[in-house]
Amino acid sequence: MSGADNVVWLGTPAFPEAARTALADTRLRANLRRATGTIRDKRLAVAAELDDWEELRDTAAAVKRRTLRHLDHHLLRLEETVTAAGGTVHWAADAAEANAIVTRLVKATGESEVVKVKSMATQEIGLNEALAEAGIRAYETDLAELIVQLAEDRPSHILVPAIHRGRSEIREIFRREMGEWGRPAPEDLTDEPRDLAEAARLHLREKFLRAKVAVSGANFAAADTGTVVVVESEGNGRMCLTLPETLITVMGIEKVLPSFADLDVFLQLLPRSSTGERMNPYTSLWTGVTEGDGPQNFHLVLLDNGRTATLADEVGRQALSCIRCSACLNVCPVYERTGGHAYGSVYPGPIGAVLTPQLVGVKNAASLPFASTLCGACYDACPVKINIPEVLVHLRAEAVEAKRRDRLLPTTEALVMKAAGAVLGSPRRLAAVQRLAALGARLVARDGRIGALPGPVARWSGTRDTPAPARESLRAWWRRTRTPTSEDARTTAEGKVRR
Amino acid sequence: MNGRESVLSAIQGALSGVPDSERPDDVPPSTGPRADHAGPDVVGLFAERAAEYRATVVRVPQADAAAAVGRALARTGARSLVVPPGFPEDLLPEGPWSRLADVPPLTVAQLDAAEAVVTTVATAVAVTGTVTLDHGPGQGRRVLTLLPDQHICVVRADQIAPDVPEALRLLDAYRPLTLISGPSATSDIELDRVEGVHGPRTLDIVVVEDA
């Protein structure tokens, strides 16, 4: 399995096609509009409470950018401190290597099941599937991840993976599937969120209490102390991080921070940006192992899987600053209408549109840099100031360049752009084309608007109306009415003097 | 080439544009004086913010602290109480509850059956309404505050830091740390907040004011 196979879901349609299907799903759009609207308002309110919010963002961005510029140094330091605290550090160049390491570690314990804390990194590498192939069952314990797992669905949001599901759907999934995986849902289960959460509590508790091995991701790791941080709400994270004997944490190499002291900035920014809370209910920090408390074997797997390729791109590199808060998803007009599945990747939304093509290579996700209106709302919302529009434009150029390289003949788009260049480069040619366009437009326009056209512009004109060009260009009108005579010049001069 | 060497050499290749004169420690850590988000009434703010997260908060003088713990137990009707080693005896109320000491360590099944746990804290954060445990004396192993349904925290007013940076500076990174802001909660179903998923369903905070 290569990295590309996991980050993007092979066989799913490209964004424009998937978006078309999603847009037709009115229930999905209503769910999303309500959910993202709620969380947007909460985020704005708690961010506004901190009058140095912008300063915090600048600091966080600076720490992240600076850390990335010396990533090897900080990772080696982290390896040293985690090892000194009794943990074991592993390095994985790609998904296959990471999966092999985790599988080997689980097998060494003699166990055939693991409990999991929600983690983007393990989803990205397809860990659950790899473990299943090795005969190990992985149980997701985050409520939303549980819903996705039971439904054999895919996550559609970084923070709330089941955001596309309504309560009655979730009730049906629980009633139908829970029995297959363990304790069945109660007979009289209603679709009240309180009841559904209670069913998940009962279903998962027996798994927590017997689990010997847990797998987690990491939100941050401090290089100077070796402290790893997991931020969560439900307590499923604490269960996994505390009860089992062995803990395996898979962490993207970009998650390292230089120091424990740097955490204060990120613990102020992350909860407020992601769930709109001043602080999430539970944050766990651990440094290696502690005798008599929690797992006695700790393994940290440092994952590359396309990150060093991203690091090599000086414009695109900033995407590695992402702290996975999902604020950009919740403010994105495109995400709000298409939902996360349309992006065909573990990472949806604006950050997904820049991260996915970089992790898997632009050629393997060529439509994603175009899945945006470049409105910039994501840049405004990002707590670490990733300039997502800038990276999108940069990747668009790469996608076009990659397409050009692979073709013998230029694309229609390239030809049109070349012709446009020639026309715009010469006032005389521009005037001639404007006269022609005005004439031609009057033949095809209805009520001053041009609708769908045949031929090479069919795809472009099929989705938008274009106002017909004016009968006369501004330049032509100016020349006709304002060509100065000596009489005009004198009147103007006198007019100015009089005022 | 093993994973470690290949990842490190790929990083070094990717960073070839970074000048050698630029050192990783050129820039000091990000802590420093910042805006005050807490205001003068740090204790009042902590009580208000913790309550907003549906923790039950009471402020009592030292002499009434044990009774306040007793009232919290009475409110839920808990009959078994986990008391971590090192918890101050004078903070324990009389009452119809049985005491579970974690010496020798309680089993997971015993903890799952226990109804309440009472702990002190390492520090607290006013702006976010957070209590922080470093699982030292009086706080117990991490699992003690995870399995029982009710967690009662006794916080001394002088342990409350105004904000996150001050609280982190007071903590020892080499201990396991748990930051708790209200009871366990989820918003995964239609973003409706529900309390009490896996951790304790009830969080009681007793703030002991200076005499």
Automatic annotation (TrEMBL), chain A:
Entry annotated with the keyword Electron transport: yes
Domain 4Fe-4S ferredoxin-type: residue ranges: 319-386
Keyword 4Fe-4S: yes
Annotated Lactate utilization protein B C-terminal domain residues: 410-481
Record keywords, A-Z: 4Fe-4S, Electron transport, Iron, Iron-sulfur, Metal-binding, Repeat, Transport
Pfam families: Fer4_8, LUD_dom, LutB_C
Record-annotated LUD domain positions: 77-302
Gene Ontology BP term (one): lactate metabolic process
Region (Disordered): 478-499
GO molecular function terms listed in the Swiss-Prot or TrEMBL record: 4 iron, 4 sulfur cluster binding
Ranges of biased composition (kind: Basic and acidic residues): 485-499
PANTHER family, sorted: LACTATE UTILIZATION PROTEIN B
Descriptive protein name: Iron-sulfur cluster-binding protein
Species: Streptomyces sviceus (strain ATCC 29083 / DSM 924 / JCM 4929 / NBRC 13980 / NCIMB 11184 / NRRL 5439 / UC 5370)
